[in-house]
Amino acid sequence: MKLRHAFLLTLVILFLDQALKVYIKTSYFLGEEHLVIPALKWFRMHFIENEGMAYGWKLGGVWGKLALTLFRLVAVILGTFYIAHIVRRKYHTGFIICATLIYAGAIGNLIDSLFYGLIFENSDPFTQNIAKSAFEKDFTTGYAGFLHGKVVDMLYFPIITDATIPTWVPVWGGEPFEFFRPVFNIADASISLGVFMILLFQKRFFQPPQENFPTVETSSKVDDEVQVS
User: Fold this and answer.
1) SS3 of 100, please?
2) Domain contains 228
3) For residue 188, is it within any domain?
4) Is 39 inside a domain boundary?
5) Which residues does residue 45 pair with via DSSP β-bridges, in sequence order?
6) Mean pLDDT, the chain, as a whole number?
7) pLDDT-based confidence at 222, cuts 50/70/90?
């Protein structure tokens, strides 16, 4: 796999991720939810924002948000050199693809954290406003400063709902159960897929190279009576 292929894959993921995020941010009010395909009750778009990690996990407070954004920035910078390194060293194509998926996903969420606070209006769940962007004439101020933007999530797949955990289960017995509860985005999915595929195919990706021993051709007769000294 060549470096331009990894670069192209990164661009495709970023385009899909950011296009969907901008559409949701400027078309949905915070908390709005719709079925994508009416026949599939589990395939929904549900607009939320989070200040933390994938699937709504958080690293508390303003300083936690800042630390997470800076960590993402450093990880992306180092990831750029790492992708170039594994391509140059001709690592397994599958591993390069997985590493690129993780890399592209990290960039996708980093863009939200870096710039969305500057270019978008705040989405208020109480007024249920549709946020405007900085490119619209009547809007000039974003909802947060540089490095403090919120990550936009929208993909929601509640495959199992209205279930209850059996009472014999310790701690959580009798509580409502839903699968799959987290709301995520394409960048999160890209990271998760890359990590999952590496874990699943690690033996194939990281198997040691086989040594090829040279063969020697000879016209000499070889039988059981021939001795080699």
Assistant:
1) helix
2) no
3) yes
4) yes
5) 34, 155
6) 85
7) low
What residues are annotated to the active site?
153, 188
Domain that holds residue 71: 3-205
Residue 63 DSSP SS3: helix
pLDDT of 73 > 60? The answer is yes
Helix (H) or strand (E) holding 200: helix 186-200
Per-residue model confidence (pLDDT) at position 198: 95
Burial track 114-133 (b if 16+ CB lie within 10 A, e otherwise):
bebbbbbbbbeeeeeeebbe
Q: Domain for residue 157, yes or no? A: yes
Query: CB-based burial of residue 212 (10 Å sphere; 0-12 exposed, 13-18 middle, 19+ buried)?
Result: exposed
Render pLDDT for 100-149 as a digit per residue (tens, 0 to 9). Answer: 999 999 999 999 999 999 999 999 888 999 998 877 766 667 888 888 89
Residues 134, 119 contacting (CB under 8 angstroms): yes
Query: In the chain, how many domains are there?
Result: 1
